Amino acid sequence: NFLPFRLFPLREHGMNWRAKPLTCQEIQAFRKSKEVMDRFIRAYKLMLGFYGISLVNEETGELERAENWRERFDNLNRYSHNNLRITRILKCLGEMGYEDYQVHLVKFFLTETLVEETLPNVKRSALDYFLFTVRSKEKRRELVHYAWQHFKPQSSFVWGPHDKLQKYR
Question: How many domains does the chain have?
Answer without folding.
Answer: 1
